[in-house]
Amino acid sequence: MHRFSFAALLLATAIFTSSPSRAEDLKTVASALDGYRFEFPCKDPMPENPKPGADGISARATNDPATNDKFTDERKFGGEPGKRYKVTLRVRGVVEPMMYKDGQQVGEYFYIGGAPNNATYNIYELSVSAPAQHFFFNRQDKVGHRIFTIDYTATIEIEGGATLTLHGDGQNGRMITNFAKLVVPEIPPAPKPYNGQFIQLNVIDVAEVK
Q: Does residue 145 belong to any structural domain of this protein?
């Protein structure tokens, strides 16, 4: 009787420690990234029948100078200092194309390291202090008056307590508008189109790097 009870206890403990709740708990260390949105809203209301390929003034642009439509947010990653975590992000949004160079292309849109390779199109960037690296989210082979949706996953490594810097730069005070009225399902303001461009990051998995 006592053997059975002890074995049952061991089994229950094993089930508990390997349950999905452990993975959910780990996800909390990346809460600073979960749900973050890069946003480039248009200054003017969306027309009833937008002109294909139309560009517009960024609502982020200031008058000093008019091309200053960039922003930077700094956040702190959770977890334990000295530990490294593998974070899988789901990247969704409506964006214009941008070229990058001297880094590593992963898939169609994700780019690791390197630098911007155009002076006028929108930049979406995440920098991690440790291990030191930066990432871009809207990579394309060429720029142009195009707008498109993205929906992909990317996995990066982040050390506990690292500084996260999320940076957007429109570079010239203008953007390619959402002239096609594209909508990303389940992402606000869906089912309505966003008047401008955005990228939303969601954390779908976190695992310790052993």
A: yes
